[in-house]
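User: I want to check something. If I give you two sequences, will you return the structure for each one separately, not as a complex?

Assistant: Yes, each is folded on its own. Here is the first sequence with its structure:
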Amino acid sequence: MTSLVAPLVAPLITDGSIIELAVQAMVVSVKLSAPILVTALVIGFVISLFQSMTQIQEFTLAFVPKVIGVGIALLISGNWMLHTLVNYTESLWASIPSML
């Protein structure tokens, strides 16, 4: 007579592999957001310094250069960002069979 209960098999996905996947995802997200955030930070600091030196407190003076700078940063680093994301996704899909 065969048993209807599945045999106990150790799962291939361990706590360490889940943590490794989470760390990889966080590293990729930091790498992808860094060019945009650094550009906005530098432009914001320069504009803020200019505003404090000239006593001009205008919202658009800070907003418009940031938008233009972030757009330029996306144009320059967009190709690299796309390749990084595609490589991570391909490696993630390739590792799925070994986890099952």
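And separately, the second sequence with its own structure:
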Amino acid sequence: MLILALETSLEVASCAIWDSEVKGLRAEIKSHAYQTLTQRLPELVQITISNAQTRLADVGLIAVSLGPGSFTSVRVGLAFAKGLAMALEKPILGVRTMEALALAATANEGDLLVTLYPSRPSRPTEVYAALFQVRNGCPVQKGPELALEFTRLISQLQTREENRIVFVGVLPPGASSLVSELNRGKQVALPLAPHLPSASLIAQKAWERWQRNPKSDNPITLAPHYVLPSSAETRFGITVSLRD
């Protein structure tokens, strides 16, 4: 099965064609499209399809990131994916971005896996984060996604019972010195390079889920997953997004 995946939660948007038969990428395109995402998405899909040497008609499943991330970008990506799925009459799966990012980590059984990336440009030390524990070789999420200052995250990790903590994603400025505090009683593994959410990871997570239960999400009711309120919600005291 060919999976067309979209990831639009951050400033770098990506589109991928992932082949379940070989469990690998046919093609993936990444682009800084934060301010022009609505105009760029059709082009990104077209180029990715061309590079994968296939056709939209050959795609068997559409996967899309649900966030958390930029309020507008997540909604734009999801709306585009839903429209594509309905127009092509293809199944669609929404994937929480943190669950997909966890696939990028190299962790051992029993490790605490911490996924994280920036929450918003105006607060460089605030991150989206989620905690996973590796069980039977697979990351199992422990609790909801968080949006908090990195110092608060470190304080929470210090109270955890796991002896080994593995970080994956993007560390905020000054994180290395803060993480060193955990080394006193725990083993800490930091990413060798920043790892942003990507369409290829979204596709892999969607395939995992499809294998367990080959059932499409409802494209009408599928909604973004947010942790922080939007600026409109903060300003007017209303709720227009889904959060845990």
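Because they were folded independently, the notes below concern the second chain alone. Residues 71-88 form the longest helix (18 residues). The chain has two domains: 2-98+197-236, 105-189.
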